Amino acid sequence: MQIGELARATGCRVVTIRYYERIGILPPPARAANQYRIYGEAHSRRLRFVRRTRELGFSLDEVRRLLRLIEGGDYTCDDVRQLGVQHLEDVRARREDLQRLEGALHELVQQCVGGASPDCAMLEALFAEPVTGEDGRKPAEGA
Amino acid sequence: MQIGELARATGCRVVTIRYYERIGILPPPARAANQYRIYGEAHSRRLRFVRRTRELGFSLDEVRRLLRLIEGGDYTCDDVRQLGVQHLEDVRARREDLQRLEGALHELVQQCVGGASPDCAMLEALFAEPVTGEDGRKPAEGA
DNA sequence: ATTCAGCCTATAGCGGCTATAGGGTCAAGG
DNA sequence: CCTTGACCCTATAGCCGCTATAGGCTGAAT
Q1: CA-to-C1' distance for B15 and C18, Å?
Q2: Residue A134: its chain B contacts at CB < 8 A?
Q3: What is the per-residue DSSP string for B65-132?
């Protein structure tokens, strides 16, 4: 199948497929006489795997590692699990950060009375005391 | 004060300060005879404001808009509130995405028995049916 | 013959920095 | 006086994961 069909089959854009090939996520496919790329089922399965892992937030580098494990054939469940657990922790950390942020932001917005007042408590709060702790870490008050 | 001192005072890196100047977040300061940048209290306050809003996840463009409001002097509380509410909604959406992701990932990792088994339920699941729910939301990325 | 969708390559751009190269400046110490 | 070292300067390229643009070829239908 041609690249457009593969794109439709996987929900991946044509340009992205070519990009994946350039950076080594997908192997270069065969070419027709007119230089068009020709893909088979193996490519399709591989690309769907990539899409799915990307949707789960794995970086392209992690995807590459997973693919290498699979290609190698001698991976253990533990190898995979390790990558998964690490990523899960990353996602949880980011989510918690975002959650704290959301809380802080919510509080801030609530201080805003709105209307045509030329003063704004929210802006004043932003000009006042630091949001971060004394060590310059990320914000922590939302909760 | 010189750029290094400003950096220490605001918790912002020297290179980042110069970057902010280049993209118009900070106005070009006065220069000493040796071309060194010389900052005053106004710069320091402005930069702290930028840092704080950035920590709250506002994009540099939103920061610019906030700064313009302040500079203009004729902003209303509603103007600010609107930006804040919009951003809060963006953050909430991202957090919810990430939360869904976390759930899916957690389930997936739990299927993994670990150990030296050459099969992995997690990998198999990734090769099987789509991970995203029927709501077809986009995956959350970056912070 | 022309139109149009689809394919090709190469390159630049996004946000928000960070890193590197290759210098100049200035106060302190030997 | 000379070196060391911390600080400053500019300009440019790199990071991630694409996306967009420019400019051209292919192949089927009208």
Answers
A1: 8
A2: none
A3: HHHHHHHHS---HHHHHHHHHHHHHHHHHHHHHHHHHHHHHHHHHHH---TT-S--HHHHHHHSS-SS
Chain B residues lying within 8 Å of A49, measured CB to CB: 126-127
CB-based burial, A95-128: b 16+ in 10 Å, e otherwise: bbbbbbbbbbbeebbeebebeeeeebbbbeebee
Please check whether strand D approaches the CB of A19 to within 7 Å: yes
State whether residue A91 sits within 8 Å of chain B by CB.
Answer: yes
Instruction: Note whether B104 and A56 are within 8 A (CB).
Output: yes
The pLDDT value given to residue B137: 40
Our measurement of CA B2 to C1' D27, in angstroms, reads: 65
What span, in angstroms and rounded, lies between the C-alpha atoms of A42 and A48? 10
> Does residue A125 lie within 7 Å of nucleic acid chain C, judged by its CB?
no
Q: Which residue has the tokens 């010389």?
A: B38
Nucleotide nearest to A38 (CA to C1'): C7
Beta bridge partners, B38, equal B30
pLDDT digit string, tens, across residues A64-116: 999 998 888 788 888 889 899 999 999 999 999 999 999 999 999 988 887 77
Helix and strand numbers, DSSP H then E, in chain A: 6, 2
